[in-house]
Design a protein that fits this description.
Strand 2 and strand 3 form a beta hairpin. This protein has ten helices and eight strands. It is an alpha/beta fold. Helix 1 crosses helix 2 and helix 5 crosses helix 8. The N and C termini lie close together (10 Å). It folds into two domains: 197 residues, Rossmann fold (3-Layer(aba) Sandwich); 97 residues, no CATH class.
């Protein structure tokens, strides 16, 4: 796999705004239905799937604009509990491996939508989406034509501690103080556990307050330049799903067999063409993970 690092101040140039040519819901379990949409050229020779971040985020109109709409048809979807997928903010039957299987079900479902089999596709994921892309590729390598990974995140314990316990806090102390506010000082030695208790508790007001604080911390530190409009755009409903689902995944170590499984199993996909694009100053996704992934994938 190739690696591009660092990207420091480059501004992303999107393709023009575009609307889906098809959208719908796919029932993937007894309780979960996944919202998906297709954009681009329905008869294009190339098919791609876009995996959003989080866990707990959702797709946005700008996510449709990464690929040339004349050359690609692109499937985007809201992961379990996110965006338009139902039930909203649900933690039940919501694991990495459930999502991996949802991706495969959506690929198969495209044969019904498009009347053509998509045997392989390009898998694009950023942040948590990169972890999900790797998990999917390592389970279904025969279905992946190429990988595009932006901001590598592998959900290892040291990555989580860097961002949610100590590390990024030294760089953004003004935002860190706001992240600390909802948690009593006696519980701050394990911030993720303290937040999880409140985000899954019965006190709705406390849950809302913690959801907003958790999400604001991440949005405040996710861009090279702090974007107040971006932070303000996260309403209470979005914050609830984002914070609850992230905490759910983090407390269960991503539902991986080992801490570092995605890097340990990189040899399974060493034959798949791909590129890693990593920002030097990406706080939630420290560059060291991309570097380790590059080394393992090429060894």
């Amino acid at each position: 796999m190739a690696i591009t690092v660092p990207i420091i101040e480059q501004r992303l140039k999107y393709f023009p705004e575009i609307e889906p040519f098809h959208s719908g819901f796919l029932k993937v379990s007894d309780i979960h239905s996944i919202y998906y949409e297709l954009v681009g050229n329905s008869e294009a020779p190339q098919t791609a799937v876009f995996l959003h971040g989080g866990p707990g985020g959702s797709i946005t109109p700008n996510n449709r604009r990464y690929f040339d709409p004349k050359k690609y048809r692109v499937l985007l979807f809201d992961q379990r509990g996110c965006g338009k997928s139902t039930p909203f903010s649900s933690l039940e039957h919501n694991t990495t491996w459930d999502l991996v299987d949802d991706i495969e079900k959506l690929r198969q479902h495209m044969a019904i939508i498009l009347q053509v089999n998509v045997d392989k596709w390009v898998v694009f994921g950023g942040s948590w989406g990169s972890a999900l892309a790797l998990a999917y590729a390592e389970k279904y390598p025969e279905r992946v034509k190429a990988l595009i990974l932006r901001g590598i995140f592998s959900l290892r314990r040291k990555e989580l501690l860097w961002f949610y316990q100590e590390g990024a806090s030294f760089i953004f102390p003004e935002f860190w103080d706001k992240y600390l506010e909802p948690i009593p000082e006696a519980e701050r030695s394990d911030m993720m556990a303290a937040y999880y208790k409140r985000l899954t508790g019965d006190n709705i007001e406390e849950r809302k307050r913690c959801g907003k604080a958790w999400t604001t911390w991440e949005l405040s530190t996710s861009c090279l330049f702090v974007d107040e409009n971006y932070i303000a755009s996260a309403d209470g409903e979005y914050c609830d799903a984002f914070a609850r689902i992230e905490c759910h995944y983090f407390m269960d170590a991503g539902f991986f067999h080992t801490d570092g499984q995605l890097l340990e199993e990189a040899h399974k996909i060493s034959h798949i063409p791909g590129i890693i694009v990593q920002g030097r100053y990406d706080m939630p996704c420290p560059v060291t993970t991309a570097w380790e992934k590059k080394e393992m994938a090429t060894s």
